[in-house]
Amino acid sequence: MIEQQGTKLTVLYFAWLRERTGSAREQVTVPEAVGTAGDLIAWLRDRSPGHASAFANPRVIRCAINQEFADAATKLRPGDEVALFPPVTGG
Amino acid sequence: MRTIRVQEQDFDVGAEFAGLAGSCTGIGGIGCFLGIVRDAAQSRPISAMELEHYPAMTEPAIERIAAEAERRWSLVGCTIIHRFGRLAPGENIVLVLAAAAHRQAALEATAFLIDWLKTRAPFWKKEHYTDGEQSWVEAREEDDIAAAQWLAEGC
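Output (structure tokens, whole complex):
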């Protein structure tokens, strides 16, 4: 028997994603099938109506994994810090 | 010398110029970009600009951008200071100084640094209008195009 352990991740939200999800940071354990950043965004949508609103249009979401810019195809590893945010507007 | 600071408080532009100029030899010129909070967005008056950032990532991201500028233009030194928090119209937001032996490198590196800061450093701006409403600033396609031009010209 293989035990289904899932992958523990820390998820950070910034700007309007933080406002809509109602949280700046949360710990999640995702099923093994959630293997990439894109999978994670799709999975997070079902957490609350706020998450559904935040992730209604996944194409406008950008991400960083362990403080480095990443994309939807980037693979997730246990313990990763995944930051989700709209396109940056500094300078 | 490379100086990078992400801070809530204001900075003294003159002191930063003097600090950079005095930190190394071989400087022939310093290029400068100073970003200031506008008093309106699309002619809608603003009472404040709020800047959020990703503390664990911001400085490393700016270090990478600075290292790329130093490599491309053989900079003698550079200073990048970016503020966060709530800023009023007229306040300083960002300072970019690029020191090089000659003006072309100093000016080009300055333009590169601000173009890449706008598109590759994790900051988000929210405008607070004088009527009490607020909205997050949307990324502009022109900024992406400006930043991408340096990719075509690089390496």
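Chain B touches chain A at residues 35, 51-54, 56-57, 60-61, 82, 93-94, 114, 117-126, 136-139, 143 (CB under 8 Å).
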